[in-house]
């Protein structure tokens, strides 16, 4: 056996060990999350972070693509399953209203969107789960809890296939790892079902647009149009973002000698625009267009009065600009890696623009990357724009396109650094620079993931930030902010029992008094009661109506506090209890 054969065999053995080790991670993560085994989850998350170093043992193209995709799928499943099984109930935010919309369609057998309810116009949470439930014989609750997140786990694999069209296997893997390392991937996004489906369709569209073979065939063009219609019906916000990216690509093609994006012609842009306007004007009764107009009106009207106001932007933006936050060497290290990732993204974007000899795919991807960067900068700089979708979701969507810039940025910095140091020509070779940049990128991403996921704070017993790794410490904390975070994220079985009791024993027109958090979440999904001020849901912060039911969640009765969006108030001062009020308190306590 020659030396090359021996090296290849050793490489394959190391790769097989990595795959074998990570292959068991999703199952262990799911079991640990379901059983509440915090120590096992900490080990799994550490293993996931260290898997970024796999780029240093993969060398041959033939084996690395398969192994990288297998590792990406394993990491994706592990992160998603750890979130899914941390609670057997629905948890998150928008998923409660989405499940309620599904119930309306499943129970009546009719899909009837209304202009006043923007959720009702989205097929991804109404018709699609109904069809899935009928064909695979799984109850609707499990469709939202497990099936959709499992479907979403293939997003990073599709993303890898897109990145591989213009990056090496190692750099494509690191770009996808950055996308998965952001907590929005395995946290918030999993409670927004319509966006999970929309991102799957969006990446299918991008893959079709950057694949010349698809664009040249008639069947490929038909598939692209169908995917465009599917994206529009899946999620209004992602559809608008895609339209914006198409517009940037079209404009770029007019100022460039090269075609900026295959298929981004006047016809393509007009088809997408007409389909969007037609769907949201007629089929969706204008709900999506109303939301867009309201957002644009609020942003444009605030430019002159709130452009420099801190209150018009999320608190995380102000903390990043002013370098405020908790003190300590771990928190300083956290800020260092957070800033490092953002700086390398910006430097990589500039490096890609200035790169000589860009490939055809790089020319096609550049307008999409530029459009995503413009969207992210606008969300941070324009007043109130970040609140329309949530800044973390803006960043999550932008990472789909700009994550490769991180690799360009690290490689550019390493190249410049090596040229400034007096080294031999061999030491400054492209291979050595590329290998060094991959190692540096892997180290940064490992540290970024461990901090962002909350692993560091769980191990150091600092203030917990992860409901996956530190849910027990959160619920046992005396910090009201942590308690609020826990009870807003997770739905307790006692609260579900109360909501179902109300659904079975009280008519929908019966006034109900509850705090905003309960009214938007557990009472919507499990009580099947739409949130409406007409029925006094949410009026607990003011005063309860006479002859009304008063819904007190476990958090209300144990802490004596109620949650209304981002602030709390005392339950005792709000509940005007009389003999005419009927109070359901789920057994935690009774008011007389």
Count of discrete alpha- or pi-helical segments spanning 4 or more residues:
29
Radius of gyration: 25 Å
* Tally of DSSP β-strands: 5
Category by helix and strand content? mainly alpha
For the biggest sheet, the summary is: 3 strands, parallel
Low-confidence stretches: 259-263, 426-433, 534-538, 588-592
Mean pLDDT: 81
Could you estimate the helical fraction of the residues in percent? 55-70%
How would you write the strand order of the largest sheet? 1-2-5
Strand content: under 5%
| N-to-C span | 86 Å
Q: What does the overall shape look like? A: globular
Compute the number of structural domains. Answer: 4
What tags apply to this protein structure?
592 residues, two-stranded antiparallel sheet, mainly alpha, three-stranded parallel sheet
Architecture blueprint of SSEs:
Layout: H1 3-23, H2 25-35, H3 38-50, H4 61-84, H5 95-108, H6 127-136, H7 140-152, H8 155-163, H9 169-181, H10 193-209, H11 212-216, H12 218-234, H13 236-254, H14 266-283, H15 287-302, H16 315-322, H17 329-354, H18 360-381, H19 385-389, H20 391-420, H21 430-452, H22 455-459, H23 471-475, H24 480-489, H25 493-505, E1 512-513, H26 516-520, H27 522-525, E2 549-551, H28 554-559, E3 561-564, E4 567-570, H29 571-574, E5 582-584
Parallel strand pairs: 1-2, 2-5
Antiparallel strand pairs: 3-4
């Amino acid at each position: 056996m020659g030396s090359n054969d021996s090296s290849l065999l050793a490489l394959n053995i190391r790769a097989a060990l990595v795959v074998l080790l990570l292959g068991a991670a999703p199952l262990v993560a799911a079991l640990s999350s379901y059983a509440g085994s915090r120590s096992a989850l900490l080990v799994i998350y550490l293993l996931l972070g260290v898997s970024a170093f796999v780029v240093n043992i993969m060398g041959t193209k033939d084996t690395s693509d398969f192994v990288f995709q297998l590792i990406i799928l394993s990491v994706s499943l592990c992160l998603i399953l750890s979130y899914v099984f941390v609670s057997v109930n629905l948890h998150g935010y928008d998923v409660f209203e989405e499940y309620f919309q599904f119930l309306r369609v499943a129970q009546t057998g009719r899909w009837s969107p209304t202009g006043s309810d923007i959720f009702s116009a989205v097929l991804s949470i109404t018709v699609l789960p109904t069809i899935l439930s009928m064909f695979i014989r799984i109850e609707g609750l499990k469709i939202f809890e497990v099936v959709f997140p499992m479907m979403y786990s293939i997003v990073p694999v599709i993303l890898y296939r897109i990145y591989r069209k213009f990056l090496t296997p190692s750099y494509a893997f690191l770009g996808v790892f950055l996308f998965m390392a952001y907590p929005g991937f395995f946290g918030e996004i999993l409670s927004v079902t319509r966006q999970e489906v929309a991102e799957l369709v969006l990446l299918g569209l991008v893959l079709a647009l950057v694949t010349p073979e698809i664009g040249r065939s008639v069947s490929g063009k038909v598939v692209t149009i169908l995917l465009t219609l599917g994206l529009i019906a899946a999620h209004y916000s992602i559809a608008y973002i895609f339209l914006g990216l198409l517009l940037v690509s079209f404009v770029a093609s007019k100022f460039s000698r090269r075609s900026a994006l295959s298929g981004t012609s006047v016809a393509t842009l007009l088809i997408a625009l007409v389909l969007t306007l037609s769907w949201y004007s007629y089929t969706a009764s204008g709900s999506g267009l109303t939301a867009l107009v309201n957002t644009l009106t609020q942003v444009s009207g605030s430019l002159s009065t709130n452009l420099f106001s801190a209150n018009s932007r999320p608190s995380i933006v102000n903390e990043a600009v002013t370098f405020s936050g908790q003190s300590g060497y771990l928190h300083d290290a956290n800020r260092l890696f957070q800033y490092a990732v953002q700086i390398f993204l910006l430097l990589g974007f500039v490096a890609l623009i200035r790169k000589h000899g860009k490939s055809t795919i790089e020319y096609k991807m550049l307008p999409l990357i530029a459009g995503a960067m413009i969207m992210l900068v606008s969300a941070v700089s324009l007043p109130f724009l970040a609140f329309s979708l949530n800044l973390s979701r803006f960043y999550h969507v932008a990472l789909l396109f700009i994550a490769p810039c991180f690799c360009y940025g690290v490689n550019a910095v390493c190249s410049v650094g090596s040229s400034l140091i007096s080294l031999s020509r061999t030491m400054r070779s492209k291979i050595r620079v590329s290998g060094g940049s991959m190692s540096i990128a892997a180290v940064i991403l490992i540290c970024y993931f461990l901090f962002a996921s909350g692993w560091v704070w769980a191990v150091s017993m600092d203030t917990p930030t992860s409901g996956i790794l530190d849910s027990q410490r959160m619920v046992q904390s005396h910090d009201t902010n942590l308690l609020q975070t826990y009870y807003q994220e997770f739905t307790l079985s006692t609260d579900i029992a109360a909501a179902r009791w109300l659904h079975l024993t009280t008519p929908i027109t019966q006034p109900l008094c509850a705090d905003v958090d309960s009214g938007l979440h557990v009472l919507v999904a499990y009580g099947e009661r739409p949130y409406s001020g007409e029925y006094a849901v949410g009026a607990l912060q003011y005063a309860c109506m006479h002859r009304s039911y008063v819904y007190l969640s476990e958090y209300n009765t144990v802490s004596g506090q109620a949650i209304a969006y981002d602030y709390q108030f005392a339950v005792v001062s709000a509940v005007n209890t009389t003999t005419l009020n009927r109070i359901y308190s789920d057994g935690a306590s009774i008011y007389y």
